[in-house]
Here is the input.
Amino acid sequence: MEKVNNVTEFIFWGLSQNPDVEEVCFVVFSFFYTVIIIGNLLIMLTICLENLLKLPMYFFLNSLSFVDICFSSSTAPKLIADLLVKKKTISYGGCILQLFGVHFFGCTEIFILIVMAYDRYVAICKPLHYMTIMDRERCNKMLLGTWLGGFLHTVIPVALVLQLPFCGPNEIDHYFCDVHPVLKLACTDTHIIGGVVTANSGTITLGSFVILLISYTIILVSLRKQSAGSRRKALSTCGAHIAVVIIFFGPCTFTYMRPDITFTEDKMVAVFYTIVTPMLNPMIYTLRNAEVKNAMKRLWGKAVSWKGNGK
Here is the structure.
C-alpha cells in the first residue's frame, strides 16, 4: 500500500482549553523551565570548575544534568510558547523531531541512572577495587553505551511512525508529539505497531526499574557491614539516587507499560516526567550530597571574593 501523507502540520489540544488556566500554567512552567536550566547548569559548572569530573559519580551526574536539560527542552519551550496562542500547531517534521528527542533523551537518562546505580554498587560493595573497576576508560565506554542504547531504542518508534500514512484528522490530544497519540491519527490499522512500541518502551522501562530496585536492595543490604559513618554517607548518596528513580520511573511506567490506549491523565503524568523530574534532580542531588553542597559554597565564596576585588 502506497503511503499517502496529506498532513503537513498537527494541532495540539494542549493542557487546557481555559485561557485563565493557561495563563497560570504559563507562569508556573516558565518558572519550572528556568529552574531546570539554571539548576542543572549550576551542577555542571560546579563539577567542572571544582575538578570533580575525575570522580566517576560526578562524571555521570554531569551527564545526567546535561541530559535533563536536553530532555526537558524537547517539550517545555514549545509547551510554554503554545500557552500564549489559541491555535497550537507543529509541523510534521517538527513533530517527528520532538518524538525523537523525547524518546532519545528519556531513554538515555534511564540508562545513565542504571550506570549510576552500578557505580554506587562498586563503590560500596567493592571499595578497595573501585578506582580500578571504574577507571576513566570504562566510564567513557559506559557513557557511550547509554547514548547508543538511547539511540537504538528511539530508532524503532520513529521509523514506525515515519512509514505511516496521515490523511486527516490532525488534532493531537496532548501538548507534545508522543507515539500513542500520533498513532491514533494514522489512516491505517496501528494495533500491531502500537504493540511493538509498547513492548519496546515497556521492556526498557520495566526492565530498568527492576534492575535498579535489585541493585539498590543489594547495596542497602551490604551497608549493614559498614561503619556508622560510612553507612550514613552511603545512605545519603543512595537516598538521592533512589528518590530520582522513583520520581522518574513512576510516571514513565504509567505511560509506557500499557496497551495502545490513552487516558485523560496522560498529559499531567507527562508533565511530571518531562518537566518536574528534570527540575527536581538538581535539588535532590544538591540537598543530599555534602560534597556538591561544599563545592557550590566554595564557588559562591570565590564569586563573592572576585566581585569584591573587582570593586
About this structure: DSSP finds eleven helices and three strands in the chain. The CA atoms of residues 50 and 78 lie 34 Å apart.
